[in-house]
Prior knowledge:
By secondary structure, this protein is of the alpha/beta class.
Amino acid sequence: MPWKLRTSASTVPIVIVNVSEYRCDALIIPKTGDLQVIRLDKLEKHHVDDDLLKLIEMLPLSDRGKFERMLDRLWRTIGEPVLRALEKFGIASRFLDPPHVRWCLTGRLAFLPIHAACPADGKGKEGMLDYVVSSYIPTLSTILRTQASQTKPTNNNNYPRVLAIRHSEDQRAPLPWAKIEIENLRKHAGSHPIYELSENEAVSEAVLREIRTSDWVHFACHGKQDVASPMESALILHDGHMPVSRIAAEVTSTGEFAMLLACETAMGSPALSDEAIHVAAGLHFAGFRGAVATMWSIRDDLGTQVADSVYGIMFGRRRQGEGLGQETSVRPAADTAPYALRETLLKLRDGELTKKRVKAREWAPFIHYGL
């Protein structure tokens, strides 16, 4: 196997899914061993195109079961055969802790939520969420560049430098939950400082400057995908749009983690289906290892619950044997983000975070992007 492929999967196996008119395959790059090619006989390119069009049409309107049928097709055509292969090669098993897998999806498949794939024939059926911890990567070259540029955290102290950015007083669509998100972040950080740029302080120049020296960044603001010009997809701040093009050009960071629960922060453009261009990709390109982001519009209250749960797991303020509320000196680990998100989505799906089970179309947009 070429050394670049081996290096890209040195810590976490990668599954590349290639879709074409001639044949479709999954290429599994394990941490050790040979590259494995799995032919996906049930997957056809027109199915992917059809499902993407349906996804665009059904959101945010009521889909009358169409979303679940799309997840079922993803399960039958990709999920089941890939999981069988992962089990065959000793990477995944229902008897083992779910492994972390990085998905590199090609073409329009990159717009579909493979992490949420599950069978539709009856409640209680296990799906992708039950078997693996999923992250998405745009290309192997991107992950190699990020791995090569890894350095020590910006902050040499034990705790990361955490920056919170809040712009909720948007007259067109206020964000009443944004303040609660920051309060929850402070709750989990305990006595450790959170640096904040709020409302009229949250302007592009200040945000870009502070991002460069931060390890973790939380965005509580609106986001917008520009389908016609993806590089102009942006976060909406007090002084207007902060586009991907500006983030990529002006920020060089060694940041560890970003929480991007603004809508559509990991939504690309079908017109440029081989290029993952969105806000999360812009931060990843700028040097941030990973981000929790959204594939399409979300409920504001659900975003707040997801952030609260994920941070609660990542900060890990209590260790076994310590009393309630006692803080530890252990640095919160950014690489626990994909595990924390999976645990959170399972709780949403099964009704453990809310009074009732959350529909798949409402929890599926939350993804982990990057390393």
